[in-house]
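Handout, section B. The chain below has 214 residues.
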Amino acid sequence: MRRAAAGLLLALGVGRWGVARAQTDRLAGRLPEPTHAAALALIDSARAAGLPADPLVNKALEGASKGADGPRILAAMRLLAHDLGVARDALGASSSESELVAGGAALRAGVAPDFLARLRHEHPDEPVVVPLAVMADLVTSGVPADTAARDVLTLARAGLREAQLVEFRRDVERDIALGAPAGASAAVRVSAAARGVAAAPATPTGGTPPRRKP
């Protein structure tokens, strides 16, 4: 029994080492040697802290593809690692990699960590990638960060589904493109979306709306 358990642990360790090696091998030949060594050390530190490595590898590759120099690539990787750590603290250690990446993007856009924590607290058993992404996109479009975060929290609390949140974001972006003030558009659209959810008939379990009798 002990031998079986030891073998399982060894296999898991080898498997994790293989995944880590595959992640970092993607950087081979893409970065100057001093930058490559520093990037690997940064990735190892992040992995030891329980943070996902792939986003950091992708950030390094992005910088290399854009011709950024070594110090700039490493600075971007450090900033991303910091944001992933703050997002993990706010969203919880069990959050998925996608949630941490989306949370980091929301933080970089200016959303306060408290809003991430509130979103997780209100939706502990649901993925929150889309709400976080909508927060970040709204801020990028010009909506004040606190307004964007509160609006998304309000709509998520009201029961909007992921597709509806994306449609809300598109409506706000369309209004802004037509010349409407970003904050005013968000206020109008969030009220309309919340009213629409409140007025919609209840959908039974299974997601199929009830059929009307002829």
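Note. The mean pLDDT is 85. Compare this with the example in section A.
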